[in-house]
Specification:
Strand content: under 5%
Number of helices: 23
């Protein structure tokens, strides 16, 4: 709502933080009034504990939002002013809904827990509406135990699993609560449930499920990830999310799940068996350097991990354009992607370097790219790795136009 130039806005209608007309004025204990959205962002998103104007401590209770007192009188004045100036294009904003209370939320949780089926779904829809209301509502939901309840709903895989994941996607669940879910879930049952919910569900539910799986794995300690007992079916569903191009957000989450799971050798083999290598290569073919650099880097990271296994290297070489795709990404996406590309070529050249593979590396331009890495401003470790590859197979590539000069310059 931007006022016209002819309208003079009373300064006390403006939020001291955003300098915009307040829609939901609230007063903090220091006596200063702010717009609710702005002060919540100041406190909860930016992690400040003092009043922006007076710099005094706000004495915030982490489980409540009682330090924000609605200023109904000022809100009515602002709404009346908007109405009086409607001819200037000023729109009167509706009266904001009051923040949710713990009592209200706990009542909905209890009702949903006692009555599975349509009653549960109605309660979950109401909780989702509350979660979409404000930052204060999200915090109130989390402190009322809704995260733990939603985790149990997903584990049951009954009515409302998709709705529960939708609510979790709206909440900024703390790492502490995510770790609590991991400790409660026992032997990867939550991951099992997420995978089963994803099967045959809408793209929206699959999006929410894979994102939540990523959050769970990010919050877990490395040793806990190793104990999740991920099986072929888990990897197959994650890879299917990439294959189906559910959404850019889901693709990034799926890549992160694979990256977190594949430091363990058994997981690498299962990911390869699930068809991850050709899907990653197809993703790299379709992505442009400027479209989504982070996704390209993640795909190269996972491909590098998978090539740490004999099965992964075999899958890369079986793909009609595997080596060509990797070579193409070197010096095109980022320094990080270049390093990963050189690492992949190093793994292939050390452990799978048959005469046919070495010829293919020269034919598809991989050798040329290695020479360019040595002659351009790349990371020192990346250059060192490229030099090792050239020295290892320089004799096989001596007919390459650029190899002779580069090999002569190597120490």
């Amino acid at each position: 709502m931007e006022p016209e130039m002819e309208v003079s806005v009373p300064p006390y209608f403006l939020c001291p933080i955003s300098l915009q007309i307040m829609k939901d004025p609230v007063t903090v204990p220091t006596g200063i009034t702010y717009d609710r959205e702005s002060i919540e962002k100041w406190v909860y998103t930016n992690k400040n504990t003092t009043c922006p104007v007076t710099k005094q401590a706000l004495n915030i209770n982490q489980d409540t939002d009682y330090f924000l007192t609605p200023n109904h009188t000022l809100r009515r004045f602002i709404q009346s002013w908007c109405t009086l100036n409607s001819s200037y294009g000023i729109e009167r904003f509706p009266t904001p809904k009051p923040p949710a209370s713990k009592i209200q939320i706990k009542k909905l949780i209890d009702e949903a827990a006692k009555h599975p089926g349509q009653t549960r779904i109605r309660c979950l829809k109401r909780l989702r509406s509350i979660a979409s209301g404000s930052t204060a509502n999200k915090r109130c939901l989390e402190s009322a135990g809704v995260v733990e309840f939603l985790g149990r709903v997903v584990l049951e895989e009954g009515a409302g699993s998709g709705e529960a994941l939708g609510i979790l996607s709206l909440l900024r669940v703390s790492e502490e609560r995510l770790k609590g879910l991991i400790l409660e879930e026992r032997e990867g049952k939550l991951v099992d449930a997420l995978v089963r919910v994803m099967q045959g569900s809408s793209d929206e539910v699959r999006d929410h499920a894979i994102v939540f799986m990523k959050l769970i794995m990010q919050a877990a300690e490395p040793a806990q990830v190793g104990k999740l007992k991920l099986v072929l079916g888990h990897f197959a569903e994650v890879v299917q999310v990439l294959r189906d191009q559910v959404s850019p957000k889901a693709a990034r989450a799926a890549l992160k799940v694979l990256a977190l799971a594949c430091p363990w050798g058994r997981n690498r083999v299962r990911a390869v068996e699930a068809g991850a290598v050709p899907v990653l290569l197809d993703l790299l073919i379709s992505a442009t350097p400027t479209e989504d650099r982070r996704s390209g880097e993640m795909a190269m990271t996972v491909l590098d991990q998978l090539c740490g296994s004999a099965e992964g290297r075999a899958a890369l070489l079986e793909h009609g354009a595997g080596l060509a795709i990797v070579a193409r990404k070197i010096l095109r996406v980022s320094h990080y992607a270049t390093d990963r590309g050189v690492r992949i070529l190093s793994l292939v050249s050390r452990f799978s370097a048959s005469p046919a593979v070495l010829r293919e590396m020269m034919d598809v331009g991989a050798v040329t790219k290695l020479c360019m890495v040595l002659q351009t401003e790349c990371e020192a470790k990346t250059k060192e790795k490229a030099g090792e590859i050239m020295k290892l197979h320089g004799r096989a590539w001596r007919n390459s136009p650029c190899a002779a000069d580069v090999l002569a310059s190597l120490p």
